[in-house]
TrEMBL record:
Presence of the UniProt keyword DNA damage in the record: no
SUPFAM superfamilies: Trypsin-like serine proteases (SSF50494)
Domain Peptidase S1 per the UniProt entry, residue ranges: 9-89
Keywords: Hydrolase, Protease
PROSITE patterns: TRYPSIN_HIS (PS00134)
GO terms of molecular function: serine-type endopeptidase activity
Keyword Signal among record annotations: no
Protein name, per record: Serine protease
Pfam family for this entry, one: Trypsin
Organism name: Flavobacterium sandaracinum
Biological process, per Gene Ontology: proteolysis
Length: 364
């Protein structure tokens, strides 16, 4: 599932009677909106003539974004870069990356404001048809839909989408690769669109990922996972939760490598919270089953504290004890319906770690 959607970065642009779309963009030293130059008019307008607005979702009110300066206005390649100032830009914009080295047949997504419905953005899905990296352009086409609908010309229905940010997704994360320029042919027979790549604004970009380099992508994904894990651990710490602190301390004994301890802790917390919902369902819908489960757990508590909690010299010793305990609990829970076995045993061991019923400390 994709959580980081292209529409989060979509804006509407008005300038001297023209209405188009644009995309929010993080730069080296400031924040910008990238759009098609023709959305601003035939000639570069005064910055005071540009109105940029953003919605939190497609039905919400528009929020104005302050235009600071027009940094680029290029009619040859049809792009414009506007420096902006608006609230929460850092939190929003550093959630995606910029990409170069686009490959044909890559699936893309873009989102913009059609002229027939300028008060609501609309997302589209397509694919890259061809690329000319030398001159910084590429061509896309729609997939599964068409601009030519209800007897209306595609050119008319696509009007206003120029300037929309074009994203490729890797590992459920968006990479901005460029913007829409114009629909090809007046009737958009093939639903093809010319686009400009981010190559033209590289001097404003701090970094980008080469999407054609698989080793580069692999390394990026590993770094991304580490960043996400680090952020989640920090969020847990900020909650000052005794449960999370104790669970994290045990995992540092079980897994001496900090990166692995972090990753395991995050996975356990996700599982624990999900399984906790299952436990509540069992408690509400199957009270006898829940009572049987709690009775088995209660009989185990003294054994867990006396026989499994201890100081360990090697992390493998603690891991073996944890697995032995979970297997013993699992065998005791076999009397319960089989669909609950794995969830209940794993849930309970994580809970015991988090409340120190099951306790491991390093024997220094």
């Amino acid at each position: 599932m994709t959580y980081n959607l292209a529409e989060k970065y979509c804006v509407r642009i008005k300038s001297n009677g023209n209405t188009g779309s644009g995309v929010l963009l993080p730069g080296k030293e400031s924040f910008y909106v990238l759009t098609a130059a023709h959305c601003l008019g035939k000639n570069m307008p005064n910055v005071s003539d540009i109105v940029i607005e953003k919605q939190n979702d497609y039905t919400s009110e528009f929020r104005a974004i302050t235009c600071v300066e027009i940094k680029e206005f290029n009619t040859d390649h049809d792009f414009a870069l506007i420096e902006i100032d608006f609230d929460d830009e850092e939190r929003l914009l550093y959630q995606y990356k910029l990409g170069r080295g686009v490959l044909s047949e890559n699936e893309i997504k873009f989102c913009g404001y059609q002229g027939i419905s300028i008060n609501q953005y609309r997302p589209f899905t397509g694919k890259v048809l061809s690329v000319s990296d030398d001159i910084g352009c590429f061509k896309i086409t729609l997939v599964g839909e068409t601009f030519d609908q209800g007897g209306e010309d595609g050119h008319y229905l696509a009007k206003g989408l120029s300037g929309s940010g074009v994203f490729i997704y890797r590992h459920n994360s968006p990479f901005l690769i460029g913007i829409l320029n114009s629909v090809i042919t007046d009737k958009a027979w093939n639903d093809d669109i010319d686009c400009s790549s981010i190559k033209h604004i590289e001097e404003y970009i701090s970094e980008y990922v080469d999407l054609s380099d698989f080793e580069n992508l692999k390394q990026w994904n590993e770094n991304l996972e580490k960043e996400r894990t680090d952020r989640e651990i920090e969020a847990f710490k900020k909650e000052n939760s005794d449960f999370f602190e104790k669970l994290y301390r045990k995992n540092n004994v079980l897994y001496p490598e900090i990166a692995k301890a972090n990753s395991i802790t995050v996975k356990q917390i996700r599982k624990f919270l999900a399984m906790k919902d299952n436990i509540r369902t069992i408690e509400n819908d199957y009270p006898i089953l829940y009572s049987n489960f709690k009775n088995i757990v209660k009989r185990f508590v003294d054994q867990v504290e006396d026989d499994y909690s201890r100081s360990v010299t090697e992390s493998n010793e603690a891991i073996d004890l944890k697995m032995e305990l979970q297997n013993q609990l699992k065998s005791q829970l076999e009397a319960l319906p089989s669909f609950t076995n794995l969830d209940l045993s794993e849930f309970q061991v994580i809970e015991w770690l988090g409340i120190c019923t099951l306790n491991f400390v390093k024997n220094d």
